[in-house]
Amino acid sequence: MDGEQAPREPALFLQCRLCIIRSQALDADTADQLLAAIEENGGDAFIHQSPAPLPPVNGFTHVVSPTIEFPGHDTVCDALIPVVKPQWIYASIAKYKLANPRQYNPDPRLFLNDVVVTCSDLPDGDKDAIIGGVLAMGGLYSSRLTLNTTHLVALTAESDKCRVVESKRLNTKIVLPHWFDDCLKLGKRIDERPYLLPDPEILYMRADAPVRTTENKDIIGASTPEPKSLQLETPIEARDDLIVFQGKKVMMSDDLGVDRLLSSMEQLIIKGGGQVVHDVRKTDIYICRYREGQDYILASRLGKDVGNLSWLFHLITRNVWTSPLRRLLHYPLSRSGIPGFQKFKISLSNYAGEARIYLENLIAASGAECTKTLKQDNTHLITAHGNSEKCTAAKEWSLNIVNHLWLEESYAKWQLQTVSDPRYTHFPHRTNLGEIVGQTKIDKFAIEEHFFPEEDGSSSAITASTAMQQKDTNKLNATATSSKPIRKTKAKNNNNTKQNSTLQVPNTATPQGQKNGKSVATSTTTTTPARGKERSLQTPLVSKFLSEGKENDTPSTTGSRKSKDIAAARLHEIAPDIALYEKEKKRVGGVIYGGRRKSDQNDETVSGSGRKRSMEPEDFSDDGEVSEMKKQKKSKPPVKIHLLITGYTRWVGNASQEDTDKSHLRSLGIQVVQDASKCTHLAARSILRTHKFANALAYSPKIITTEFITDCILKDRLLNPDEYPLRDPESESKYRFSLEDSRKRALKNKNKLLDGKMIYCVENIRGGFDAFKSIVETNGGQCALYRGRSGMAISGRRTAADEGQHAGGGDAEEVFLISGLEKSHMKLWPKFRTMVQDARKVPRIVGADWLLEIAMSQEWRSDDNFELCEADVQMADE
Q: What's the pLDDT tens digit per position in 79-109?
């Protein structure tokens, strides 16, 4: 408004009563600030210290917490009460209206809940698909570029919105649509770096180039179900800060087998404000090793937190509450394993560190056999990406190649998942799926169906369960709306399968609170038809433990049901909800969390002054900059130079400067490329023996100094590259070649210097096998990894290419192995010699310098100085 400030809403939170969960993730100062902000805006709030049991949930309308790891989270969601991050408070105050809670839901299964996306110059079909996927997974869409926009989806970095992001240096990531496609295919959020414009790796990097690994923190402390010892940073008697067991009663099962640690753990539980009990009916937490026994069944039916020793250690060492269902190996094991897994032999590839240990233990827990090496009698290969020798061998042997999601979801649902599901066979380019290991949760409804179904329990157990309901002190069933009804048969199941039937996102783990435009109590998705009927969508109006004989309950059965009857009943049950969801999707503004009130219809778009108000903060189009850009429609000049750069010190450790300079160079007509085959010019500070430099030489580009880049940027114009030739006589003398002569020979060789040659390379060669492989293949040869594996052989049959000399020179009978001087490499030499001699050829074991000098000089070199022998290893050790 001109000349005056917009009126502030006097009572923004007038109809809200908020529960602020204070924990290690939300300290006391932040909680007090939130409380003050809510009260200043007319709301009522109170602070609850986690992990103490929640008060009756009918006493508040929202729960504020940066994480879902607090006791009672499932109860809150079953009561249709939204859980929001603290940012929701500040966003609502900034907009003077309650923000959409879906964007601020901390549930990790809403893997796009932090995303606010806008699109630029995309086809309508792709745009609609991205918007639908983002909304389904907790994100928001904005038609305009705003300060809150986190991701801008574009095909190139030359659109108007991209220029605004660049010019204003916004904290907005410009990504290709492929990122959303891969995220939705996997049902997980992966790293955006390979998809970032202007130089996305997925478009320019080779398929066989090394893939970066990312540290995974989801599985720290959860990689094994049976920890050997309790690792504490401070002694038990000095541990005074433990609060994770405050107000909790803990029972330890007899099957743990930890007599020596039992007294120490009991001391820690008592120090943490807890109490050790020996009656499962009086406990809040039950710790056991296996999913068996009357105590396990009763504790599970009573809704207790049931976990294993690994989960208990995790609580003690981190002093932070987390659900035992959050991580697969924090829940007790089964002695028998998943049905059908006993016949499987599974090997792992491309997973490292804690992620590999976790998957090995998960394979063992599922009942399958985990093998270190891959053989033809293996049934499955689980890999983080498709580039490895194991992957190549698995394809040759027609083995099942899947990612870890197949194993995790089979374990979570306790049912063998089909390997033909596209989610399990999808490997995004330039992404190591090890970064999303450990994000799958236990499906509590599947576990109930297989391990403690109601119809399998005795009448005495049900009676005890009903009696326990009246004496329970955890307050979860204190009011009619504060808890969920227990199911009387397997036929009653979670609402999740309904949502999975409607959303067009395949098999993703769908969180609480997205159904028919309302927040609905859900846990994890499933496509298992044996679940039977599903729970009603109404808000629970009865206490947690129903009495026998309710007219709305499905009668219990004594025998097993046929899957066809169950599937038909389930489809009949969810048909009205499917129709209702399709109707909700057409509503203006999309399906919103919790639905709309009639009184809110005008409040969404009209402020108190009667002026139409945007749902987002003021965008950049208000200052006319975007409009001016659209008027000018200034396009970038055509590309005159395709430049490959290596060893440019200005960009070392400064990614933002690199992005800015690359954009600047593109505006001058210089396109920075990563593929040596596409470059017309190579820029380097000196002659470098890098794979970029060696590969580029094979294509005979003009070689210039990196001063050309700096001067073009400083002078803001395209200079003549011929005035910046690279001259380095010292390196030419050192490496025994002339740079200009090498360029001339490269023109003559036409990338066939190593044509017809087969060169082997050890795995752990300095510089990496992939770098040497790219050099060999760029020069027309073939390169294979050599590990000394038995059964590997060279064909002794002579071909037309083997007659006489090869195209680049050298003896046709020679077979080369590139190796280092490590003893582990030397152990492979006898096997290599035997393999080559069996093929009636001559083995040559050479150092890495041999290949580098050939590639740099662009001529064949067979100097004996490059050949290695056992004496060289002994000299290196001395």
A: 888 999 898 888 888 888 888 887 788 888 8
